[in-house]
Design a protein that fits this description.
Keywords: Membrane, Transmembrane, Transmembrane helix. The chain is mainly alpha-helical. α1 runs antiparallel to α2. The chain is elongated and about 55 Å long.
Length: 84
C-alpha cells in the first residue's frame, strides 16, 4: 500500500520557517555572548569550552536550517509511482 504525498498546510509551513529563523537568531545572540567567556579562558578549560561551543553552533545551524528548508519545501513529496 502506498501513501499519497500529503501537502503541508500554509500555516504549518510559516510556523516551521519562523521557528527556524528564531532558532538561528537566538543561537547567534547566545553564542556571541558565550564566545566572549570562552576567549577569556586558558588551558584545557578553553579547549573543552571551545569544542562545546562549536558542537552547539553546529547543532543550532543544522536544526534551524532544517526547519527553514522543511517549511519552505512544504513537506515530503513522493515522485515514485508504485506498480500494484
Amino acid at each position: 500500500m502506498t501513501r499519497a504525498a500529503a501537502t503541508m498546510p500554509m500555516v504549518m509551513r510559516v510556523l516551521l520557517i519562523t521557528a527556524g529563523v528564531a532558532v538561528l537568531a537566538l543561537g547567534i545572540v547566545l553564542f556571541f555572548f558565550w564566545h566572549a567567556d570562552v576567549v577569556e579562558l586558558t588551558g584545557s578549560a578553553r579547549v573543552v569550552s571551545g569544542l562545546g561551543l562549536r558542537a552547539a553552533e553546529a547543532a543550532v545551524l543544522y536544526g534551524g536550517s532544517w526547519l527553514v528548508v522543511r517549511g519552505w519545501n512544504g513537506g515530503p513529496r513522493s515522485t515514485a509511482q508504485s506498480v500494484s
